[in-house]
Amino acid sequence: MTTILQKTGLALGLITGLAVAAPAVAEPVDYAFDPSHSQLIFHYNHFGYSTTWGMYSGFDGSIVYDAEAPADSSVEVSFPVDSMITGWDERLAHFMSPDFFGGEDKDKTVTFKSTSIEVTGDNTALITGDLTLNGITKPVVLDTTLTNDQPNPMTNAPALGFFATTTLLRSDFGVDLYAPMVSDEVQVEISLEAAAAAE
Predict the structure, then answer these.
(1) 3-state secondary structure (DSSP) of residue 181
(2) What is the pTM of this model?
(3) For the chain, how far is it from start to end, CA to CA, in angstroms?
(4) Given its phi and psi angles, is residue 174 left (phi above 0), alpha (psi -120 to 50 degrees) or beta?
(5) β-strands 60-65, 50-57: how paired?
(6) Domain regions of the chain by residue span
(7) CATH of 28-196, one of 3.90.226.10, 1.10.10.10, 1.10.3880.10, 2.40.128.110
(8) Is the peptide bond before 180 cis (omega within 30 degrees of 0)?
(9) What is the pLDDT of residues 57-107, one digit of tens each?
């Protein structure tokens, strides 16, 4: 006849076995942007004649990526507005004048900090966050695709790739000179790589 002690021992053995067999839950991983392979480009319509482009490159940022629960991930980035690349010195000088981002009272830092993530597919999500530009903070939604989640073949370190798009209104951030002849809407595309932060 099976004793109570035998039953108890059998139950404990089953519980222990299940605990050992259960898969480990992956912890969120901290990633740092690779500034040599992270760019933000923007473009707008110039009086109906042309599309004019600008770029930011070499900026730093961080991602906390939860592969098991992507909605619990987060991203932050910060860079100086005057690190803009336009390809035309006079245009850059105008952008950094009081007409746009210049002046003693202007905040010279651009920041984005995610506030929520809505997973929309196997590798897509809508990342909502607070964008601060020209000292003004507004919510922005990044339509984002995870382009790669494999170790970097050069370093074997865990790495991520993302591509994101959004549309900004210059008037939301107090830089609406010449709008709408020069389009108020600015199209933004972001491509970045991030590597697991060194421990």
Answers:
(1) coil
(2) 0.86
(3) 56
(4) left
(5) unpaired
(6) 28-196
(7) 2.40.128.110
(8) yes
(9) 999 999 999 999 999 999 999 999 999 999 999 999 999 999 999 988 889
